[in-house]
């Protein structure tokens, strides 16, 4: 960025003018930059230490149990994965479709500006409000059922859709215009150009954005509470309409138990599991991004 | 697109036209979502206001939706939200601004390549995890030297503050990077140090972007749910401005936390308490919507200045 050109002359030329103030401000700014990262690292270290001895095979394969030593996470893990799969199926085509329209078809008219502003605003609506939308729309109007897999997935899909659209738009925008023109020059239609030229080039970016959005979806809790998803489920979901819990909901439930075995053991194991899944999802996104960045 | 458009699907293929409208439909879904949010909130909120007068709702100082005698004054919830917002702002705004200055003015490209993704992790941690951290690690740690309640506004504010740091720092940094280098060079030419350049030239020039990031971050703090639901408790109380310490050391209840409490309760169906969920949701939506619009407006103004 801009910093390269100005560093050397400034520092070498004015080294003696109130140097103390300059240096201390630099250190203060650096300390501020690190404060969030360091405190998060400290908290993660705490939770990792507490999870030792609790995060074992039995924890990952058992259903929840009032006895902390037998409590397990399996229904919540499977529930989260089921919800995520449906979310991916819904948001990917809708998000990419909207992004294609906005980048390739739409003009600069008021409708486009309005849609764009609307998407930016939707990205800032509190997740608990999306929960009320899901309650009114999917549970109330369409009667999909309180806390079912589909109601949960559709609600969170609407919540992350703006993020998917915005990142897909950026990916499509980064495809050079010369490639589109070359395709038109060969006599291709607009749809052929989009399908054969734009989408293949933009796909790594679209995938990265969608996967990162799914990572956000897996941590969402408040919307699930609003659509009355149960905080504890003892069996695995066996269909799109069966009641489902999710990892963050189960953690929320356990965190309210007073016993220290839950507070500093079982919940810590749940938090570590959730973070490991989240980290895996995000690493996949980063791998995709790096792999395709090198080629271009 | 600035170049001439050589595409020609509309005249050639019906298929091209069909896809065009299919994609338009996807884009219009976002508008439908907004309409859906407003309608779902309004329909039930209107039902609620038929039973509880809006004046009583907006000016009442007692929130007690479940136990007789019920009362639906939203002010204690708004003041709880205010406490969390002020608390998290005191954490996130100075730290986020200093972080942005460091990233934009001091950090080398190499440092920036590590620091920016590391900061983004802060916003990516699920909020239920932050809530758990606040309850189980931060509160006991602070309790050793402060007279804290088990549930308190202070730990929740600190965690919300840490969560929104990246929102302040990344938008502010964008605004600072957009400040033309000639302004910095002019200042260096007058003999200014980097400290003076950062604080007296770059920050004032990027002020609208910085404000925009502040508003957006505060809007996030207002809507944040799980951290406050887990760590701040469920005691709706009015802000006592004469006792700022007590305000943070004790349990409070923001709007979002009240919504979770009703949502997890067994109140399903048509009761007033259930309907009040939508009235509080509408209040929350209106507040954050207005703040997001202001942030968008302020940000779009600075974009035009330097281009």
Automatic annotation (TrEMBL), chain A:
> Highest taxon of the source?
Archaea
Where does it localize?
Answer: Cell membrane
Q: Does the keyword Transmembrane helix apply?
A: yes
Q: How does it sit in the membrane?
A: Multi-pass membrane protein
Instruction: Please give the GO cellular component terms listed in this UniProt entry.
Output: plasma membrane
Which keywords does UniProt give here? Cell membrane, Membrane, Transmembrane, Transmembrane helix, Transport
Q: Which residues cross the membrane?
A: 27-49, 69-102, 114-138, 144-166, 262-288
Extract the CDD domains matched here.
TM_PBP2
* GO MF annotation: an example: phosphate transmembrane transporter activity
Q: Which residues form the ABC transmembrane type-1 domain?
A: 77-285
| One of the GO BP terms on file | phosphate ion transmembrane transport
Q: Known Pfam families for this protein?
A: BPD_transp_1 (PF00528)
PROSITE patterns, alphabetized = ABC_TM1
Q: Which family does it belong to?
A: Belongs to the binding-protein-dependent transport system permease family. CysTW subfamily.
Q: Which PANTHER family match?
A: PHOSPHATE TRANSPORT SYSTEM PERMEASE PROTEIN PSTA, PHOSPHATE TRANSPORT SYSTEM PERMEASE PROTEIN PSTA-RELATED
- How is this protein named in the record? Phosphate transport system permease protein PstA
Q: Which organism is it from?
A: Haloterrigena turkmenica (strain ATCC 51198 / DSM 5511 / JCM 9101 / NCIMB 13204 / VKM B-1734 / 4k) (Halococcus turkmenicus)
The beginning of the lineage is: Archaea, Methanobacteriati, Methanobacteriota, Stenosarchaea group, Halobacteria
Automatic annotation (TrEMBL), chain B:
Cite the GO molecular-function annotations of the record: phosphate transmembrane transporter activity
Quick one: where is this thing mainly located?
A: membrane
The protein's topology relative to the membrane is: Multi-pass membrane protein
The organism sits in which domain of life? Archaea
Residues covered by the ABC transmembrane type-1 domain: 78-295
Instruction: Name the Gene3D superfamilies on file.
Output: MetI-like
InterPro entries in the cross-refs: MetI-like, MetI-like_sf, Phosphate_PstC
Q: Where are the transmembrane segments?
A: 21-43, 77-103, 115-138, 150-171, 192-218, 277-299
| GO CC annotation, single | plasma membrane
Gene Ontology biological process terms, A to Z: phosphate ion transport
Which keywords accompany this UniProt record? Answer: Cell membrane, Membrane, Phosphate transport, Transmembrane, Transmembrane helix, Transport
Q: Where in the cell is it found?
A: Cell membrane; Membrane
The reply on keyword Plastid is no
Q: Which family does it belong to?
A: Belongs to the binding-protein-dependent transport system permease family. CysTW subfamily.
> Which PANTHER family does this one have?
PHOSPHATE TRANSPORT SYSTEM PERMEASE (PTHR42727:SF1), PHOSPHATE TRANSPORT SYSTEM PERMEASE PROTEIN (PTHR42727)
Q: What does this protein do?
A: Part of the binding-protein-dependent transport system for phosphate; probably responsible for the translocation of the substrate across the membrane.
Q: What protein name does the entry list?
A: Phosphate transport system permease protein
- Upper taxonomic lineage: Archaea, Methanobacteriati, Methanobacteriota, Stenosarchaea group, Halobacteria
């Amino acid at each position: 960025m801009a910093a390269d050109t100005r560093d050397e002359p400034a520092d070498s030329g004015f080294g003696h003018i109130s140097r103390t103030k300059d240096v201390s401000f630099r250190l203060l700014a650096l300390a501020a930059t690190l404060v969030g990262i360091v405190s998060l690292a400290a908290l993660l270290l705490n939770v990792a230490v507490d999870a030792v001895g609790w995060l074992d095979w039995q924890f990952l394969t058992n259903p929840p149990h009032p006895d902390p030593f037998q409590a397990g996470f399996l229904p919540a893990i499977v529930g989260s994965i089921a919800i995520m799969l449906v979310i991916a199926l819904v948001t990917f085509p809708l998000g990419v479709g909207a992004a294609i329209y906005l980048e390739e078809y739409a003009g600069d008219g008021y409708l486009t500006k309005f849609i764009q502003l609307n998407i930016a605003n939707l990205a800032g609506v509190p997740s608990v409000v999306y929960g009320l939308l899901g309650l009114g729309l999917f549970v109330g109007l369409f009667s999909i059922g309180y806390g079912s897999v589909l109601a949960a997935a559709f609600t969170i899909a609407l919540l992350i859709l703006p993020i998917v659209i915005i990142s897909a738009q950026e990916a499509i925008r980064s495809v050079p215009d010369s490639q589109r023109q070359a395709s038109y020059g060969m006599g291709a239609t607009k749809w052929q150009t989009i399908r054969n030229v734009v989408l293949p080039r933009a796909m790594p970016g679209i995938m990265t954005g969608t996967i990162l959005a799914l990572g956000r979806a897996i941590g969402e809790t408040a919307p699930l509470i609003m659509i009355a998803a149960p905080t504890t489920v003892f069996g695995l979901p066996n269909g799109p309409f069966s009641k489902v819990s999710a990892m963050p909901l189960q953690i929320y439930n356990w965190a309210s138990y007073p016993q220290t075995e839950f507070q500093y053991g079982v919940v810590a194991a749940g938090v570590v599991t959730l973070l490991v899944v989240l980290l895996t999802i995000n690493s996949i996104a980063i791998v995709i991004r790096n792999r395709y960045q090198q080629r271009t | 697109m600035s170049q001439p458009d050589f595409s020609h699907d509309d005249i050639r293929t019906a298929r091209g036209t069909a896809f065009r409208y299919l994609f338009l439909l996807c884009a219009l879904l976002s508008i439908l979502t907004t309409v859906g949010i407003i309608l779902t909130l309004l329909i039930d909120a209107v039902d609620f206001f038929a039973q509880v007068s809006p004046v009583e709702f907006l000016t009442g100082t007692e929130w007690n939706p479940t136990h007789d005698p019920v009362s639906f004054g939203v002010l204690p919830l708004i003041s709880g939200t205010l406490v969390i917002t002020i608390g998290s702002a005191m954490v996130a705004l100075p730290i986020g601004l200093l972080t942005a200055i460091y990233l934009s003015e001091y950090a080398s490209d190499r440092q920036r390549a590590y620091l920016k993704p590391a900061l983004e992790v802060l916003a990516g941690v699920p909020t239920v995890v932050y809530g758990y951290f606040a309850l189980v690690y931060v509160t006991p740690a602070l309790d050793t030297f402060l007279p804290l309640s088990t549930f308190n506004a202070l730990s929740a504010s600190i965690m919300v503050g840490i969560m929104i740091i990246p929102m302040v720092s990344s938008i502010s940094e964008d605004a600072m990077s957009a400040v033309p280098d000639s302004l910095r060079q002019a200042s260096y030419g007058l003999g200014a140090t980097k400290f003076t350049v950062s604080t007296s030239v770059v920050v004032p020039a990027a002020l609208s972007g910085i404000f925009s990031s502040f508003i957006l971050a505060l809007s996030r703090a207002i809507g944040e749910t799980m951290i406050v639901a887990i760590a701040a408790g469920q005691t709706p109380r009015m802000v006592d401005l004469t006792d700022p310490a007590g305000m943070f050391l004790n349990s409070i209840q923001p709007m979002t936390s009240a919504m979770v409490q009703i949502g997890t309760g067994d109140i399903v169906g048509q009761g007033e308490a259930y309907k009040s969920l939508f009235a509080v949701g509408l209040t929350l939506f209106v507040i954050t919507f207005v703040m997001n619009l202001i942030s968008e407006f302020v940000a779009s103004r600075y974009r035009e200045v330097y281009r």
